[in-house]
């Protein structure tokens, strides 16, 4: 049954991939919106099911069209990794708009179908189950007929296989793109509604797991392969059902994520790949367009560091200092991510995973083992970096979208492991009562103290990254970014350098995690989420590629702005999403870089 | 006689690199026109400009005298351009039959298409034997035949071919060029990019020689065949 539900999502994702060449990460958001449209029609308008479904299909198809127009078409020539980012940003906007419109709480979704059941062997089957089955099989069948029997379907397949050749047949590929987004939007909305009916409730963040499951199923079947997606959905559904039975329901998502990572590592072209060879990804080492850092006078950096350090002497308002301190911690994350994404040119959507590792490491070391903070500040990041590199190492040979999805999966896996490993992490309860930062017995309580600590960590990180980027190692990392093939030809061991970049980056991200854990005094598996990874990525895109100063300024802007302009606070993530799309559209090389 | 397809002072750029310098081409109805040139001289780019896949920075593309520079690719195809692209570009996961019928994507006369397909298969017997095979699994020569048949099924006003003999054995080269001649005799205007200069000029009416994006020689095929410069540039012993 679960397999049926995933099937609709997976087909939609695979369909879009085939035509537009992008894994559509806003798919889950359309799915959520479809569920809400259905919910409004059922609970407010009291419509019967059939018109509700038609409304959901139409509404989510429109949303799919809007998505194509605003987040995909302007970037058609920018490459698949940029498209992945813009769809993620669009998803962020839709999800948070839904929170603003419908509220963050879970809504009950009553089932308008009669409540009768059929006995079938050991279990029972409800009318709803049959209905979902019919919808799943029906749409798959219709889609198959459409693709293989209709003229428009042929155009879709031709476009998916060779876009330029399709143009030369006279096929209007922009129109095919629009059809596909509308169609897959309709699928997404319908499956959102069905899932909502199945579990009897809906909530604004329900799309995230749908995207994840849909992508997993689509990858299992081989991206772009519709029958494969159907198979992948059933494989995923069955794997989940068994693991829930054996291990408990909290393992549901973990299994999906592990399956996702496994398929990326071992069969990136899907389970059926023996029969159907897929084109390799183009060498998209660099996903942020090239730019050159703007020149500033040499004294500016030490001067601004001194100014920042002196600030607490003049500013008495502790709230302002707290905000800035958080800004420094995020700058730390941004500078560390910049090492992966800016300098080495590898996309990472799992930065929050490293932060989580650092936070949990210090929570366990200081609360359980009684290590002092000053020791943990060094030990925890080392632990996190080692674990992080071990986890990421197998994924480092992937490129482009595949690497992006793998890092996303790893980030999720880390927080899901924290959720499920009760004996060590206390599971969903999280770890509370973490001591504040302290050196040699002196606890740092005051806002100014925390401020200086965070600033010092940031400056240390900036200094280290600066030294590193000037060294031979830094040049090797840039060589990896510019041309993987050439770098390999010059004897640069790609895996080794990439893992060094990930390791150093994980170290500093974990320092950020340590600092935050001790200042929040409480952490849980969902303290540092995927949204954080995107937030940090937005910061470095704002600042500019391979530009340390830019990363710091990007972070400070994105943290301080929503805090100072109150009105923006509620719309914070919408702002991030808009900024991400806007920057990629109009100034992809960043605020502090210029074009070459 | 007015040209059915004309490029007028076309300047094309890839970033900062200029691929065409004031390129002018005239293709006359009923003729075979060939564009000769060495590697990277800008031949395929000219094809892309004709189809609107690359937009020139300046200059015009005229279709039967009408300015088509701003037209999108589908509109140009609807006008009657058809292409046999460089390296064939069949849809690899679709069957040969589906590939052929996609060539007639814009035609509304379904029944007539079916008849034309039958007639075409007389011209391409090998294609007829493989209608249900996935196009990606055909041999290079067979793919070339399918690509030509696909373009012809669209009833082209001008058939544009980019190196139809690339990668074929001498036997297949002759076979393909013979087919081009047959197609032309049946009334189709042909524009052909070629590196097999002598063989191409032997069936062509008119030729242009492109070098680093500049037309260095042009004239009737007979003139070019006699021109010692062409001889030196392309026909010297090793090219054949
Ligand atoms: N998409 C592109 N981006 C950048 N430069 C390009 C692109 N396509 C072609 N070029 C450059 O434009 C020039 C002309 O290329 P073109 O493909 O037109 O050559 P050609 O005459 O068809 O060569 P060949 O006989 O080898 O096919 C070459 O220097 C090529 O590198
Ligand atoms: Mg060429």
Q: Can you characterise this structure?
A:
The complex is a heterodimer of chains A (596) and B (240). By secondary structure, chain A is mainly α. In chain A, 71% of the residues lie in helices and 4% in strands. Chain A has helices spanning 2-20, 27-43, 49-72, 80-102, 127-149, 151-161, 163-168, 173-199, 206-221, 226-247, 252-266, 300-314, 318-343, 351-368, 373-392, 400-420, 422-425, 447-470, 472-482, 484-489, 494-520, 530-543, 548-564, 566-569, 572-586; strands spanning 107-108, 117-120, 123-126, 201-202, 292-293, 431-432, 438-439, 442-443, 522-523, 593-594. Chain A has a two-stranded antiparallel sheet with strand order 1-4. Chain A has a two-stranded antiparallel sheet with strand order 2-3. In chain A, strand 2 (117-120) and strand 3 form a beta hairpin. The relative contact order of chain A is 0.13. Chain B has two domains: 1-80 and 157-240, P-loop containing nucleotide triphosphate hydrolases (Rossmann fold, 3-Layer(aba) Sandwich); 90-155, no CATH class. Chain B has a six-stranded mixed beta sheet with strand order 6-7-8-3-9-10, sandwiched between helices. Chain B has a four-stranded antiparallel beta sheet with strand order 2-1-4-5, with helices on one face. In chain B, helix 3 (96-103) packs parallel to helix 6. The longest helix of chain B is centred in the last third of the chain and has 16 residues, at 170-185. Mean pLDDT of chain B is 88; it is low at 235-240. The chains are: A mainly alpha (596), B alpha/beta (240). Chain A binds chain B through residues 151, 154-155, 157-158, 161-162, 164-172, 276, and chain B through 51, 53, 72-74, 77-78, 82-83, 85, 89-94, 98, 101-103, 105-106, 150, 154. The complex binds adenosine-5'-triphosphate and magnesium ion. Adenosine-5'-triphosphate is lined by residues 14, 19, 37, 39-45, 195 of chain B.
């Amino acid at each position: 049954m679960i397999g049926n539900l995933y099937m609709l999502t997976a087909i939609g994702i695979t369909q879009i991939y085939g035509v537009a060449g992008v894994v559509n990460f806003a798919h889950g958001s359309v799915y959520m919106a479809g569920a809400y449209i259905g919910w409004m029609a059922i609970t407010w308008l009291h419509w019967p099911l059939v018109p509700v479904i038609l409304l959901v299909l139409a509404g989510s198809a429109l949303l799919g069209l809007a998505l194509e127009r605003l987040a995909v078409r302007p970037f058609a020539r920018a490459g698949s990794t940029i498209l992945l980012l813009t769809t993620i940003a669009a998803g962020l906007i839709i999800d948070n708009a839904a929170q603003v419109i419908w509220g963050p709480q879970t809504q009950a979704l009553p089932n308008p179908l009669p409540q009768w059941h059929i006995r079938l062997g050991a279990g029972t089957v409800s009318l709803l189950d049959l209905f979902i089955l019919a919808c799943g099989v029906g749409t798959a069948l219709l889609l198959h007929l459409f693709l293989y029997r209709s003229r428009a379907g042929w155009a879709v397949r031709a476009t998916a296989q060779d876009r330029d050749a399709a143009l030369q047949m006279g096929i209007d590929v922009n129109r095919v793109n629009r059809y596909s987004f509308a169609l897959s939007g309709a699928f997404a909305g319908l499956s959102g509604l069905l899932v909502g009916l199945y579990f009897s409730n809906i909530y604004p963040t329900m799309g995230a797991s749908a995207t994840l499951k849909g992508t997993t199923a689509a990858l299992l079947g081989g991206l772009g392969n519709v029958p494969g997606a159907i198979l992948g959905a059933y494989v995923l559904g069955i794997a989940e059902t068994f693991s829930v039975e054996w291990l408990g329901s909290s393992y549901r998502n973990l299994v999906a994520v592990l399956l996702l990572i496994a398929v990326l590592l071992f069969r990136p072209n899907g389970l059926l790949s023996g029969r159907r060879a897929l084109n390799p990804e183009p060498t998209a080492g660099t996903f942020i367009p090239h730019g050159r850092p703007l020149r500033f006078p040499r004294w500016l950096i030490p001067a601004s560091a001194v100014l920042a350090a002196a600030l607490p002497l003049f500013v008495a308002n502790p709230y302002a200092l707290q905000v800035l301190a958080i800004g420094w911690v995020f700058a730390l994350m941004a500078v560390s991510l910049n090492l992966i994404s800016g300098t080495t040119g590898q996309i990472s959507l799992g930065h929050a995973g490293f932060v989580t590792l650092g936070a949990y490491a210090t929570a366990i070391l200081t609360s359980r083992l009684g290590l002092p903070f000053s020791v943990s500040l060094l030990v925890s990041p080392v632990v996190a970096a080692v674990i992080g590199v071990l986890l990421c190492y197998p994924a480092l040979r992937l490129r482009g979208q595949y690497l992006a999805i793998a890092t996303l999966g790893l980030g999720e896996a880390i927080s899901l492991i924290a959720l499920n490993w009760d004996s060590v992490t206390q599971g969903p309860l999280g770890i509370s009562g973490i001591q504040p930062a302290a050196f040699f017995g002196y606890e740092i309580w005051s806002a100014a103290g925390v401020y200086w600590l965070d600033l010092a960590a940031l400056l240390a990180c900036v200094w280290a990254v600066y030294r590193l980027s000037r060294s031979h190692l830094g040049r090797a990392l840039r060589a990896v970014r510019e041309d993987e093939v050439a770098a390999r030809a010059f004897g640069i061991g790609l895996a080794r350098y990439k893992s060094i970049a990930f390791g150093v980056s994980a170290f500093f991200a974990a320092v950020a995690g340590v600092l935050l854990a001790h200042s929040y005094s409480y952490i849980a598996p969902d303290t540092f989420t995927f949204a954080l990874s995107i937030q940090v990525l937005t910061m470095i895109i704002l600042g500019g590629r391979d530009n340390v100063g830019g990363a710091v300024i990007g972070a400070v802007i994105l943290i301080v702005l929503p805090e100072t302009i109150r009105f923006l606070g509620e719309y914070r993530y919408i702002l991030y999403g808009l900024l991400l799309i806007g920057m990629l559209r109009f100034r992809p090389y960043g605020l502090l870089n210029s074009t070459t | 006689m007015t040209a059915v397809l004309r490029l007028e002072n076309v300047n094309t750029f890839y970033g900062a690199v200029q691929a065409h310098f004031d390129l002018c081409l005239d293709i006359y109805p009923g003729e075979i026109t060939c564009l000769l040139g060495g590697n990277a001289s800008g031949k395929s780019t000219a094809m892309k400009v004709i189809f609107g896949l690359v937009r020139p920075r300046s200059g015009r593309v005229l279709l039967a005298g009408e300015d088509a520079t701003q037209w999108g690719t589908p509109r140009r195809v609807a006008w009657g351009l058809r292409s046999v692209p460089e390296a064939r570009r069949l849809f690899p996961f679709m069957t040969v039959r589906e590939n052929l019928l996609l060539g007639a994507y814009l035609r509304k006369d379904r029944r007539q298409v079916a008849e034309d397909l039958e007639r075409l298969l007389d011209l391409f017997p090998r294609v007829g034997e493989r209608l249900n095979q996935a196009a990606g699994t055909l041999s290079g020569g067979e793919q070339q035949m399918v690509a030509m048949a696909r373009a012809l099924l669209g009833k082209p006003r001008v058939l544009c071919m980019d190196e139809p003999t690339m990668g074929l054995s001498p036997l297949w080269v002759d076979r393909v060029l013979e087919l081009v001649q047959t197609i032309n005799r049946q009334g189709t205007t042909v524009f052909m990019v070629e590196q097999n200069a002598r063989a191409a000029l032997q069936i062509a009416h008119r030729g242009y020689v492109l070098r680093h994006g500049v037309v260095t020689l042009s004239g009737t095929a007979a003139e070019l065949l006699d021109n010692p410069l062409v001889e030196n540039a392309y026909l010297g012993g090793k090219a054949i």
